[in-house]
Amino acid sequence: MFGLGIVMATGYMAGNQSVVQRTLGARSEWDAKGGMLFAGFLKVFIPLLVIVPGLAAVVVEPGLAKGDMAVPSMIRDILPPGLRGLMFAALFAALMSSVDSSLNSCATIWTTDLYGRVHQWVTGAELNAKKALFLGRACTLVFILLAGFGAPLLEGEETMYNFIQTALSMFQGPVFAILLLGIMWRRTTQWGGLAGLVLGVTFTTILHNIDNLFPSDDPFLFVAWWSFVFSIVATVVVSLLTPRDPDEKVRGLVFGQIVTDGEIQRVLRERSS
């Protein structure tokens, strides 16, 4: 309820860069909102889609060495040849869709948020579009090669699901905490957000490396929740200790401020009409 329902699921839909970039690519604001709501509705069924094949594999494919082989084994042994190929094609299409979104997100973050800002700080000029495009393509190639060479390192993991959820829990709690505070609390500052992120990720690392701290062999849900709480506290404390940001800097970014801002409300009414 807390670790998955409140932190990891909501944090993924609201703060994952690959999800956000798809939303920002929508045709209009209405399409962006509708797409996110529909995707959130479909996400409700993911636990069902994960659990049912696993339970079926206990009966249909007993004695599997790894849980990750449950779905491929049942596709191979149950479906007829034509439908079997179609199912594998659908699985690979879904995999490729996730991979290309992740690669694009990584390249965007590196090119725009990291290298682009360093370039502007050093040279005093923004990174031009042609150079940014070339750098983004190069980063995509490098990241996919690193992923390929690093894949054998995951052979020791029991299941890919647990590995992915554990990796997400390292960041999902802190990221969701600073996003939520930034949207809902006017007093949040950039230094508070930075402290919440850095200290929160440090806290998750500590939690993951303490044995028998939680009543689970895969405590990612516990880690996600408590890192979320810790990051909120850290962000609030540091924000209160640092200077308040001017109203012009945060205008249109804080929910309570948007509700009371007459000009913003007028623009929103014009868009909705």
Mind explaining what this structure looks like?
The chain contains 14 helices and no strands. It is an all-alpha fold. The chain has a domain at 1-14 and 29-39 and 159-242. The longest helix has 43 residues, at 81-123. The mean pLDDT is 85.
Give the CA-CA distance, first to last residue: 38 Å
What fraction, in percent, of the residue positions are helical?
Answer: over 70%
Mean pLDDT: 85
The helix-and-strand class reads mainly alpha
* Main β-sheet description: none
Rg, nearest Å: 22 Å
Strand content: under 5%
N-to-C SSE string, H for helix and E for strand: HHHHHHHHHHHHHH
Low-confidence stretches: none
Give the helix tally.
14
Shape: globular
Q: Would you count the extended β strands for me?
A: 0
